[in-house]
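pinning this so it doesn't scroll away 📌
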Amino acid sequence: LCNRIGPPPTSNLCPPPSDVQRYDSPMAQPLRVDDKGVLTTCGRCGQVNRIAYEKLGHAARCGQCKEPVEVGAAPLEVGSTADFDRLVTRARVPVVVDYWAPWCGPCRMVAPELEKVAARAAGRFLVVKVNTDVLSDLGERYRIRSIPTMAVMSNGQEVQRTAGARPAADIEAFIAASL
């Protein structure tokens, strides 16, 4: 675990920020939301589609080419506190939140495992990433003291949390036990 109190640790697992490049997963999608839902781009035609919060977890089709579009087949990167609040309070599916930071070695180790979890979720829940260096107010609000920390949110409330890096199967077991 990487300690969130004080400056970033300097162990081999948690090198200082200047020694680490930002984690940018090729699978991670920036989360774009508005007051009505999540915006996603169709992989086939490039059309931007809105999936209403209430429809998350249900099958959706592109408004232009009618191809199926998915939200949540990859972890979604939250860009603002307002986006996070809208998503977790209005989503009709559970939201698994990964609190992380780019300088944290264990966070970078768990990232590909979360990608596997999101891909296998099949709309049952969303995986959302919160960079606690960028959105420190969320880290403070939810009293995140070490990273990586994962929390399951349902109807805007935290149901359960766990800390530490773990393989995809363990993450899925944690989520199943929380729902």
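📌 and the second one:
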Amino acid sequence: MGAKVRSHRVSDGEVAARLARRGLRLTRQRKAVLDAVRAAGGHPAADEIYRRARRVLPQISMGTVYRTLGVLREAGVVQELHLKEAQGRYEERGHHHHHAVCTECGRIEDIAAGAFEGLTTRAEAATDYQIEDHRLEFYGICPACRAERRKA
């Protein structure tokens, strides 16, 4: 499909540093939620993160998971993807990348940002903004769903 993304993983030390800059610690709950995001591999919804975190901390509540995801998002550790579905998806924030989303099955594929080299510079030139961040999402039909359509 083109340029693939390198691992998103940020070290626990860097996570702790990002939280410390906000006066926060990397607590057991935050670590369990972050590890659940990492273990899910991909772009899990909060309910999947909750199920995974409960394996480590059975007493953790869904509310704690949501609050923790918010804290981790604000600290720049995870990002929430608001795609065409109602429920947000989460991923660890590491290397900048973009997404291709299947409109049939909801599969999300990462695309390396290098595939769009110079996009930020062109956007700045077109708008006179100082661009600080961006997201780019492509919507279409994945190879598996296209193959299913051909069978039908």
